[in-house]
């Protein structure tokens, strides 16, 4: 049994975590061994297989209630699964858990028809989606969207504008597009619409290759006409997208924090194992204080980050979803993961820098964690406001 401080908060859902890890070892590790490139974005058909299989076993979207196709897990259990997936070092494990292409909390505000048609297939892992929020001139400042949705006399809407840096746009079944409603009758404000990706006026524009192999896309809304039923949440959803989005941001940020904790722990384990074996100047390099400083500093930060994430997840299960808690956890865990991966790569010297080594990949991969779900600076803005500053 682990004596690490964070184990105090890990015991409660140990059975779920062990069952998940057994699935990873039994099914995903052998599949990973067949990947053409071990580290990188796995092919879409393999990701779909992993997603559906994990959903059937009850892990994917585990916190969604059973009536929606989930397993009704506490949120803390989901966070523990994300930590375990990262720590496993299995490149396919993260795809067994719902991420930014999976069920969107925004759709929980959907009409019964939207829940049936869009949310449930996502929970079952049978469909994926993308979220089109960011614009060329509105990233962190999502309140200043310029894409518009104009209500037509017949009640349908026409969406116009450009969205950028959209994950999974090339594979998604549908997009959740946030545009500013301008419908007359005082209707105004950011509104979410579901738009099928095969809509003839929804076009993928520029494609961007991410540092670690993921593709982001520009989405061009060229007078995309959608029926009134496309507004997420129906009439009550008009102007409500950012309010609903903000309500769900805390959980998304804690999931990112948990992924970072797991990755950091895996990177640290690699660093420690290497330092115990590698010899220089007649000694194992782990005997040198500069190397110890890298690894002990990382150990302290990883434990602190894990504890913070788990404590915040526990508070969520207890009904406390304070945005500043999630912001603190996401800030701490993402920045910790960047530092820990960097230090373990240093400990590996040239060996960790070579393409194909997990640390070489993680060094590129983990960097996005300080940008997605709000940059580190934006997390600090949230915490500063909660502290009564500015
Ligand atoms: C891997 C990846 C996946 C993504 N997926 C999606 C997706 O699926 N859908 C989607 O809509 N978007 C997505 N994005 C876009 C992402 O949400 C934005 O990049 C992010 O919100 C930051 O916006 P920006 O890039 O325009 O930077 P900007 O907002 O222009 O910020 C530039 C810099 O200024 C800082 N800054 C801005 N405002 C403040 C402030 N008030 N105080 C202090 N500093 C500030 C920022 O922290 C940053 O350092 C993705 C991005 C990445 C990297």
From TrEMBL:
GO cellular component: cytoplasm
InterPro entries per UniProt: Acyl-CoA_dehydrogenase, Acyl-CoA_Oxase/DH_mid-dom, Acyl-CoA_Oxase/DH_mid-dom_sf, AcylCo_DH-like_C, AcylCo_DH/oxidase_C, AcylCoA_DH/ox_N, AcylCoA_DH/ox_N_sf, AcylCoA_DH/oxidase_NM_dom_sf
This protein's UniProt keywords: FAD, Flavoprotein, Oxidoreductase
GO biological process entries: fatty acid beta-oxidation using acyl-CoA dehydrogenase
Cofactor requirement: FAD
Occurrences of domain Acyl-CoA dehydrogenase/oxidase N-terminal (ranges): 11-126
PANTHER family: MEDIUM-CHAIN SPECIFIC ACYL-COA DEHYDROGENASE, MITOCHONDRIAL, MEDIUM-CHAIN SPECIFIC ACYL-COA DEHYDROGENASE, MITOCHONDRIAL-RELATED
Protein name (Swiss-Prot/TrEMBL): Acyl-CoA dehydrogenase
Family membership: Belongs to the acyl-CoA dehydrogenase family.
Domain of life, per lineage: Bacteria
Organism for this UniProt entry: Streptomyces cinnamoneus
GO molecular function: acyl-CoA dehydrogenase activity; flavin adenine dinucleotide binding
Segments forming domain Acyl-CoA dehydrogenase/oxidase C-terminal: 248-387
Pfam families per UniProt: Acyl-CoA_dh_1 (PF00441), Acyl-CoA_dh_M (PF02770), Acyl-CoA_dh_N (PF02771)
Domain Acyl-CoA oxidase/dehydrogenase middle: start-end pairs: 130-224
């Amino acid at each position: 049994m682990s004596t690490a401080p964070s184990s105090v908060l890990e015991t409660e859902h140990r059975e779920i975590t062990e069952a998940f890890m057994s699935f990873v070892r039994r099914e995903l590790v052998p599949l990973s061994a067949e990947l053409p490139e071990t580290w990188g974005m796995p092919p879409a058909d393999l990701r779909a297989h992993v997603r559906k299989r994990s959903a059937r076993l009850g892990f994917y979207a585990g916190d969604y209630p059973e009536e929606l196709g989930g397993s009704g897990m506490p949120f803390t259990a989901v966070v523990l699964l994300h930590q375990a997936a990262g720590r496993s070092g299995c490149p396919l494990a993260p795809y067994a858990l719902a991420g930014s292409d999976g069920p969107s909390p925004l759709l929980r505000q959907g009409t019964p028809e939207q829940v049936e048609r869009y949310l449930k297939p996502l929970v079952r892992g049978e469909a994926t989606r993308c979220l089109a929020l960011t614009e060329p001139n509105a990233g962190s400042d999502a309140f200043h969207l310029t894409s518009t949705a104009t209500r037509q006399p017949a009640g349908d809407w026409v969406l116009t504008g450009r969205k950028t840096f959209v994950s999974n746009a090339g594979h998604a079944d549908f997009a959740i597009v946030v545009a500013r409603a301008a419908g007359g009758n005082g209707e105004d404000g950011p509104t979410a619409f579901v738009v099928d990706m095969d809509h003839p006026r929804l076009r993928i524009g520029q494609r961007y290759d991410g540092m670690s192999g993921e593709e982001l896309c520009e989405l061009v809304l060229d007078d995309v006409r959608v029926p009134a039923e496309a507004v997420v949440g129906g009439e009550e959803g008009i102007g409500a997208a950012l309010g609903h989005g903000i309500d769900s941001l805390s959980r998304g940020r804690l999931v990112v924090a948990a992924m970072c904790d797991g990755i950091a722990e895996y990177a640290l384990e690699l660093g420690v194992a290497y330092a115990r074996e590698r010899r220089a100047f007649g000694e194992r390099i782990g005997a040198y204080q500069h190397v110890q400083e890298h690894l002990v500093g990382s150990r302290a930060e990883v434990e602190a980050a894990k504890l913070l994430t788990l404590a915040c997840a526990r508070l969520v299960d207890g009904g406390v979803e304070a945005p500043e808690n999630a912001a603190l956890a996401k800030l701490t865990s993402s920045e910790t993961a960047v530092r820990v991966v960097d230090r373990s790569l240093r400990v590996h010297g040239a060996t960790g820098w070579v393409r194909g080594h997990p640390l070489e990949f993680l060094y590129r991969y983990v960097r996005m964690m300080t940008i997605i779900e709000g940059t580190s600076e934006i997390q600090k803005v949230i915490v500063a406001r909660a502290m009564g500053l500015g």
